[in-house]
Specification:
Blueprint lengths: L4 E10 L3 E4 H5 L6 H8 L3 E4 L6 H16 L8 E5 L10 H8 L7 E4 L5 H14 L5 E8 L19 E10 L6 E9 L7 E2 L11 H5 L6 E2 L1 H22 L9 E4 L4 H11 L6 E2 L2 H4 L6 H11 L8 E8 L3 E8 L1
Parallel strand pairs: 4-5, 4-6, 11-12, 11-13
Antiparallel strand pairs: 1-7, 2-3, 6-7, 8-14, 9-10, 13-14
């Protein structure tokens, strides 16, 4: 049995200055604003500069989250970074982030669970907090996918943006209503090849040939992913609601992975939740993978849309194929 509860004590996010809208994309790829909006709900996305790396964006978001939590990096007991686009294949981006903050002596590691990465990482942090192994854990979702885009593939090159969302997960005092209520993680590896970066690992090492064939870029079978996304997110959401004897009417806000407006709306309808309770910011940032949920959460907290005491249900799906949900009271 858990010794303590865990809560989110601070949030922050960062997106690069460069904005690429649909009309900009019309000039460089075979697409139109209407095509993108109709099929995805996206209009803008932020792209990092040539000298920016994932750790740079993670640092900016994390600094804001630490400030919001009222702690310093030296107070942390762990850093977990969720990413599929780290600075290097190794070492972990979390270790690089630890160096940026000038701290050491505690664990720092990355989690690779595709777009579900932040939910996986937050759940890991929750377990460490609840079992009194750490008091404060920094969890960051960060992606720099603009450097992994295949500009010849119109089905994917308009979808992704860069950004980072950070959260400090801390011990919750007994009198504090803020806490993680429940979570559910899942995966179905039989469909791993529907969404992947084909080359650059031990299966197909990077080579002149792999780069010429764009095998180091994002590959996705969109139609099959769509069907899995709605089904898998509904499943993990339904499980946590039933397990805690909660009706969907008890949920104040639903924050889902911002991959496609159609998917977001389809999940809301399947859950039978009021659409006004469904958070959507995909038109501004596109798909930032593991960063979508923490970015949306930070935005909603900072503009007072989500308030202290609100019950928030979060859900995501991603490469693997992974899925996960988190139920919490902010």
């Amino acid at each position: 049995m858990a010794k303590y509860n865990a809560k989110i004590s601070g949030t922050g996010h960062y997106v690069p200055d460069k904005i690429v809208n649909n009309f900009d994309l019309e000039k460089i790829v075979d697409t139109t604003d209407e095509w993108i909006r109709t099929r995805t709900g996206m209009f803008e996305r932020h792209h990092a500069s040539s000298d920016q790396a994932s750790s740079d964006m993670a640092y900016e978001a994390a600094a804001k989250a630490l400030d919001a939590a009222g702690i310093r990096a030296k107070d942390l007991g762990m850093i977990i970074v969720a990413t599929v686009s780290g600075d290097h294949p190794f070492p972990s981006t979390a270790c690089i982030l630890q160096k940026r903050f000038g701290v050491k002596g505690f664990p720092a590691f990355d989690v690779s669970a595709g777009c579900t990465g932040w939910i996986y990482a937050a759940n890991i942090a929750k377990q460490y907090i609840e079992n009194d192994i750490a008091e404060h854990i920094l969890v960051v979702g960060v992606e720099l996918l603009s450097k992994l885009i295949n500009w010849d593939d119109r089905s994917t090159n308009v979808l992704f943006g860069d950004g980072a969302g950070a959260t400090v997960i801390s011990r919750s005092e007994p009198k504090d209503i803020s806490r993680f209520i429940d979570s559910e993680l899942s995966a179905d590896g039989s469909h791993y090849d529907l969404l992947m970066q084909p080359a650059g690992g031990s299966r197909t090492p990077a080579s002149k040939e792999s780069v010429e064939k764009n095998l180091h870029t994002v590959y996705m079978e969109g139609n099959k992913i769509f069907k899995h996304a709605v089904k898998s997110m509904y499943h993990v959401c339904d499980l946590v609601l039933k397990r805690n004897h909660l009706d969907v009417k008890s949920i104040d806000w639903l924050i889902t992975h911002q991959a496609n407006l159609r998917i977001i709306e389809a999940l809301g309808k399947k859950l039978k939740i009021d659409q006004e309770k469904v958070i959507v910011n995909i038109e501004k940032y596109a798909n930032t993978s593991s960063a979508t949920i923490p970015i949306a959460l930070d935005e909603c907290i900072r503009n007072s849309k989500i308030r202290h005491g609100d019950i928030v249900l979060m859900a995501s799906f991603g490469a693997g194929l992974t899925s996960g949900s988190l139920l919490m009271r902010l």
